[in-house]
Amino acid sequence: MSERKSSRGRKRTLTNNFRHNCDFTVTPDMKQKFDDYGYIIVRGLLDKEELELINQAIASPDGVLKHRYSLDDPEGRPLGRVIWTHPGNDITGVLARSEKVAGTSEQLLGGEVYHYHSKLLLKDAETGGRHMWHQDYGYWYHNGCLRPDMLTVFIPIDRCVKENGCLQILPGSHKYGRIEHVRKGIQEEADLSRVEAIKQQTSLIYVEMDPGDAVFFHCNILHTSGPNNSNLRRWAFLTAYNKATNNPIKKHHHACYTPLIKVSNDAIRKCTVFNDLSGKEFIIPGTNSYIIKPTEEQQ
Fold it and tell me: Transmembrane residues, as ranges (predicted)?
């Protein structure tokens, strides 16, 4: 994790880094850091063997990459993605149902969660586009989720550094509540005047991570990521969870409450299912209400 001074010249060292081990549990300190700053980083959430299995599944020609599509950022640079609604039976689903991912999310949010959706975000070398400043709840609010009782787990498949467009966040920005967003193309951008004002109160953090690390972040934390101008690919696996008590009030392209059957962490290593994509319900642009045309007010 790297950091820079805020415009007021302050610099803080945020000890939001934790190390995963076989006895990993969410400690009171971890929960407090998540509540205070809106994120925690868990180094080594996936070990080398687990990461290799996930890589094999993603690389399989009959795996989830069959459903890859690309959308452009405001500068016309492509952002590859694969999005699915339910975890399914393959190893990516086992990962999303594991205690160290889903169970940790439950402890951070303080109650039962269900799988809201998972995705791959694919920034290819030298061409990958950027994500504008936004809150995930900027999108999910419009899906009928009444409360921001939601989070995302971001797990790098490749090393994530400044050069290839790593995640950038404003610690503590989740406490400012939901900010108005404006649709720009296919993305939603947070009110930049608010973003700039919040930057005066905190320090921008570049979340640099190695493959298998993870950052758990609250749905209202402001975040962005730059384009990938480097020769380093930047692929990442993300899973979003919603509290069971926050069931959306309308059906939409992501999941309404569906009980999540968690599995032990060793189920990841034991899983040999790479290509069974049944039940995952992939997002297909132009269908299942994912591609939403801007309204007159948003244009």
Answer: none
Domain residue spans of the chain:
27-270
Sign of the torsion angle spanned by Cα atoms 84, 87, 93, 97: positive
Return mean pLDDT, the chain: 91
pLDDT for res 185: 82
Find out whether 108 and 216 touch, Cβ atoms under 8 Å.
yes
What pLDDT was estimated at residue 293? 35
- The type of residue at 22 is C
The pLDDT, as a whole number, for residue 248 is: 98
- The yes or no reply on domain 27-270 and CATH 1.10.3810.10 is no
Other Cβ atoms less than 10 A from the Cβ of 155: the count is 22
